[in-house]
Specification:
The structure holds two protein chains of two kinds. By secondary structure, chain A is of the alpha+beta class. Chain A has helices at about 1-5, 90-105, 125-140, 150-160, 220-240, 240-255, 265-275, 300-315; strands at about 30-45, 50-70, 80-85, 110-115, 170-175, 180-190, 195-200, 280, 285-290, 320-325. Classes of the chains: A alpha+beta, B alpha/beta.
């Protein structure tokens, strides 16, 4: 009942400027955090008999994208149109239009502004999904829509073709990047980690995630992903960074034949020489990192040596990133 | 904690191991009927490929628990099942198979060349020629057998995390090669110890009569990948039975004698390497062995009491046969490399400087 009274206009709408169906804000805001590729990516048995492509993202709460949405005069009988700045953020625009078409009757559209974290698209930091998610949140905020996260995921996948799970923040989930489905919610936050990150192929123009068909994994590989999921569950239950690093490196190695990471051997060697626990990659991008446990005595020196060695091997500039469990204020 | 839901069927209820802590960081992976896992997986995969349809007759040669696994699944799916066996089949097992709807076809006479094994294979070919639509699971060479053990490896990894050593009996090669190779996806340096018995051809011994059943083989199965193993042990019936009874007395785990054989070796490794996380594969429960392994009178009559050995003897050449409890550092070599006494290839994984065990 509350909804219908809220939506009913108090006075009969005039011909020229009909009242909006419900009060909207003059400015909607939204944000999203990026990630540093995946801890695990593969195909998983969802009980259907057909392997389901899915991934577990490694969120980076320090990488924040924000969006603002200003609505055009409302309502309109035309389909909604959205303008976006910067202009090349076309997926974010498409996502906002999709949301308006499906959730806001008679919307005229609006003006969308994206402030990204300055990370380039295509390197595997989730830049594109971040733009899309922040845009969806800003648009929803403007119309006071409280959309469930699963709905956001579905809209993101439809706007982008494939997506990752940034809308789920730092919840660890197994997410179908093409279905938008959460296959498994591990119900645990990731433990704190230190990443020594780099771009393995800075001259590369970026990977168009959409152009990558999900690999046809063999039955043997699908079995291996199942085992890695078992290790991952134990790692999250016990907060074990070494085990998470094992999962990440094993996933990178299986995918090396499908979605190769340049210099993976060099990264593994640098990790082995500096006390790194394992190598983690963006399976559809070019960023990678070596994982360290903040609880290891002398970790600061190890991290410094690792960053220096990566620079020496031509993978610089290496960046030291912290994965924290704290909630990010937005 | 996860909420418990009802299981889909009996196959789901029995196919996966329970991980039970024995002492410190030594665990038993306890199956009720391990062979249910490959039996179910092989038929499931063949059904998805279209090789098994609703009326397809499943035909297999078996005198053991793999047949029971097949019969449990076909009882649920309704596929006809023909199991070809020989007169050594245990009567109670035969009764269970028939109750589950299987036709048990007993080959009465051994073949002049190749004995009962060959006669059984001939009979399988004959049965398949008589029925239009058949499927033979072929546990010894079907690659879906080791692949099935990804589920066991997942269960082990989820419960225990890092595994440093996996110990288990070897018969078809499916369970140990499948579980070890899958666990090595995350733990490439994990040690794998295979447990065989005297006069089994699996790891180079001459073929002969074996008292300890359920492990070992007279034929070399294609599913056995010798390069999986870091160490191979040969155990006799007396040691295995003794250890089976100890596993029951100390830990209240009621298992069959192949579990006891694995426990004997696993306990020895764990005592020498207390920092290692050791997982011991226990393939079946003890009910089928109450008149033998768990019967003191029977053991005394058969001179199998109090001969349990506490330490294995190293052997250099398995082709000469072994007795008591023997072992050979296999070092992930092929059978040929071991028989030619060639040194182990040094793998990149093992060079990585990760910790090694005694």
């Amino acid at each position: 009942m509350a909804v219908s009274t809220q939506r009913r206009s108090p006075t009969p709408p005039s011909e020229a400027h009909p009242e909006p169906l419900w009060p909207i804000r003059s400015l909607g805001r939204g944000s999203a955090i990026g990630h540093h590729g995946e801890l695990l990516q593969g195909a998983f048995d969802d009980g259907s008999g057909q392997p389901h492509p899915a991934l577990v993202t490694l969120p980076l709460p320090t990488l924040v994208t924000t969006a603002e949405f200003r609505p055009f005069p409302h309502p309109s009988t035309e389909p909604p149109t959205v303008t976006v700045s910067p202009q090349w953020k076309t997926k974010a625009r498409a996502a906002a239009e999709l949301l308006l078409r499906e959730h806001v009757p008679q919307s005229a559209g609006g003006e969308l502004v994206i402030h990204d974290a300055g990370t380039p698209p295509g390197v595997g930091l989730g830049t594109s999904t971040c733009d899309v998610t922040a845009a969806l949140r800003a648009t929803a905020d403007c119309y006071r829509l409280d959309l469930p996260v699963e709905r956001l995921a579905t809209l993101a996948v439809r706007a982008e073709g494939a997506s990752d799970s940034v809308m789920l923040e730092n919840r660890a989930v197994l997410f179908g990047q093409r279905s938008g489905r959460v296959l498994e919610d591990f119900d645990r936050a990731l433990p704190e980690m230190i990443l020594v990150g780099c771009d393995t192929d800075p001259t590369h123009t970026g990977v168009d995630t959409l152009s990558l068909r999900p690999p046809d994994y063999t039955a043997e590989e699908i079995g291996r992903f199942r085992v890695l999921l078992g290790v991952l569950r134990h790692a999250l239950d016990t907060g074990s960074v070494p085990l998470l690093a094992r999962v990440a490196e094993a996933s990178a190695l299986i995918n090396q034949r499908r979605l190769p990471t340049r210099g993976l051997d060099v990264l593994r060697e640098v990790a082995a020489r500096t006390g790194g626990l394992g190598v983690q990659v963006s399976h559809s991008g070019t960023v990678a990192s070596i994982i360290f446990d903040p609880a290891t005595p002398g970790v600061a020196e190890h991290v410094e040596r690792c960053a220096r060695l990566l620079d020496e091997r031509g993978f610089g500039p290496a960046r030291v990133l912290r994965v924290t469990t704290e909630e990010v204020a937005r | 904690m996860n909420r418990r839901a009802a299981l889909a069927d009996a196959v789901e209820a029995y196919r996966l191991p329970r991980l039970v802590r024995l002492t410190g960081n030594t665990y038993a992976a306890v199956f009720s009927l391990m062979k249910l896992l490959p039996a179910d997986h092989i038929l499931r995969a063949a059904t998805l490929r279209g090789d098994v349809r609703p009326d397809t007759t499943i035909v297999e040669t078996t005198s053991g628990t793999f047949g029971l696994g097949l019969a449990m699944r076909t009882a649920l799916t309704g596929n006809p099942l023909v199991l070809v066996s020989d007169p050594v089949i245990d009567d109670r097992l035969r009764e269970r198979l028939e109750l589950l709807g299987a036709r048990v076809d007993i080959v009465r006479d051994p073949s002049p060349v190749g004995g009962y094994q060959a006669a059984r294979l001939d009979r399988v070919a004959q049965v398949r020629a008589e029925i239009a639509d058949t499927f033979c699971p072929n546990q010894y060479s079907n690659p879906d057998n080791p692949l099935a053990y990804a589920l066991a490896a997942e269960a082990v990894a989820e419960a225990v995390g890092q595994v440093d050593c996996l110990v288990g009996p070897v018969g078809s090669g499916g369970s140990m090669c499948g579980t070890a190779n899958n666990l090595r996806t995350a733990f490439p340096e994990m040690r794998a110890i295979g447990v065989d018995t005297h006069l089994s051809v699996l790891f180079g011994q001459p073929d002969g009569h074996r008292r300890l059943r359920g492990l070992g083989n007279s034929l070399m199965p294609a599913n056995l990948d010798h390069r999986t193993f870091d160490e191979v042990h040969w155990v006799g019936a007396a040691e295995a039975y003794q250890a089976t009874r100890e596993l029951f007395r100390r830990h209240a785990l009621f298992t069959g004698p192949t579990s006891g054989a694995a426990y004997l070796v696993g306990r020895w490794f764990a005592e020498r390497n207390p920092d290692a996380t050791t997982v011991i594969m226990c393939p079946d429960d003890g009910y089928r062995y109450q008149d033998t392994v768990y019967h003191a009178g029977w053991l005394a009559e058969n001179h199998l009491l109090d001969r349990g050995e506490r330490e294995p003897t190293p052997v250099a050449d398995p082709t000469r046969g072994t007795s008591g409890w023997a072992f050979l550092p296999w070092q992930r070599r092929s059978l040929d490399e071991v028989l030619r006494n060639e040194p182990a290839p040094v793998s990149a994984e093992l060079r990585g400087g990760r910790r090694t065990w005694r």
